[in-house]
């Protein structure tokens, strides 16, 4: 569940529900993992984005093993590969009271 928030912690603007895309990079690897469709609150003024702590932990649990596996393999990567993950999300499942 998303945190309930009415104003942006950065600029005090209005926070609205939005599906966002996040990029994960590791400085030791030449790979970008892009996850899209992440439910978030986003500021309509400054663009600040906020996801729940539970969701952040879930995303880390998804991404960390990928990076750990790649570090163990020590692949020789000539071009910057991209991994796209589309986050399945049902807006009706989100109950904001």
Keywords:
97 residues; single chain; Ubiquitin-like (UB roll); 4-stranded mixed sheet; alpha+beta
Number of domains: 1
**Main sheet summary:** 4 strands, mixed
CATH topology label = Ubiquitin-like (UB roll)
Q: How is the quaternary structure best described?
A: single chain
E-strand count: 4
N/C terminus separation: 11 Å
Count of alpha and pi helical runs: 1
**What does the average pLDDT come to?**
80
What's the gyration radius in Å?
16 Å
User: What is the second-level CATH architecture?
Assistant: Roll
CATH class: Alpha Beta
Helix content: 10-25%
Strand content: 25-35%
Poorly predicted runs of 5 or more residues = none
Give the CA-based shape: elongated
Alpha-beta classification:
alpha+beta
Run of helices and strands: EEEHE
């Amino acid at each position: 569940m998303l945190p309930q928030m009415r104003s942006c912690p950065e600029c005090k603007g209005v926070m609205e529900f939005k599906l966002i895309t996040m990029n994960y990079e590791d400085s030791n690897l030449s790979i970008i993992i892009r996850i899209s469709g992440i439910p978030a609150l986003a500021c309509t003024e400054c663009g600040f984005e906020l996801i729940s702590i539970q969701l952040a932990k879930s995303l880390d649990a998804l991404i960390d093993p990928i990076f750990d596996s790649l570090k163990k393999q020590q692949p020789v990567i000539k071009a910057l590969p991209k991994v796209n993950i589309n986050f399945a999300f049902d807006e009706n499942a989100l109950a904001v009271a």
